[in-house]
Prior knowledge:
Elements: E1 10-14, H1 21-36, E2 43-47, E3 52-55, E4 72-74, E5 81-84, E6 88-94, H2 97-101, H3 105-122, E7 128-130, E8 133-139, E9 145-156, E10 159-167, E11 187-188, H4 200-215, E12 218-220, H5 224-234
Helix pairs in contact: 3-4
Amino acid sequence: xxxxxxxxxxxxxxxxxxxxxxxxxxxxxxxxxxxxxxxxxxxxxxxxxxxxxxxxxxxxxxxxxxxxxxxxxxxxxxxxxxxxxxxxxxxxxxxxxxxxxxxxxxxxxxxxxxxxxxxxxxxxxxxxxxxxxxxxxxxxxxxxxxxxxxxxxxxxxxxxxxxxxxxxxxxxxxxxxxxxxxxxxxxxxxxxxxxxxxxxxxxxxxxxxxxxxxxxxxxxxxxxxxxxxxxxxxx
Length: 235
């Protein structure tokens, strides 16, 4: 389903440094609740996390190969186990799926995959989807398929939470502690491994341009972490 004919511009915020997973979760959930209540606008939030694993609602215990390697956080998003860490761009999407997609969650997911594929294309990488598997895939030099971007969302009161993670230059060795997304017959890769020397700000620029082409205009917004600190200090 097509997005709303008259969508409002979406706030676009980027945090520097590393953001603790639980802090990000709290900020994201609070913002999504405010959007659902009509007290705040939609937000795309770009961050990096310290190295960790997250377990979605379909995660299987046997897919956690090395529980001692990194912290594991249970989360309400769809999907299985995945990795987050420095050098990986995470985009949390707090969007009104009701107004933009008429509640069509499948169409929303496909739109997010297409967004990432468009952004990769502007960086010189050909991405694609695989039937029956969520996320974005590429061919490595030897011709093997590898996953470069994961996707996991949750819809609550018509508003999306969580989002996508794109491997720019993370430590891919950390994926050894899990079977990522429950897929053991294909590997994971990054822009760096593919020989693309893109800096994070280059990736952010590509993501923003592709997002605007597909979903509509965005505007610069302050770091959500700062807003929470200010609110807390004023109480």
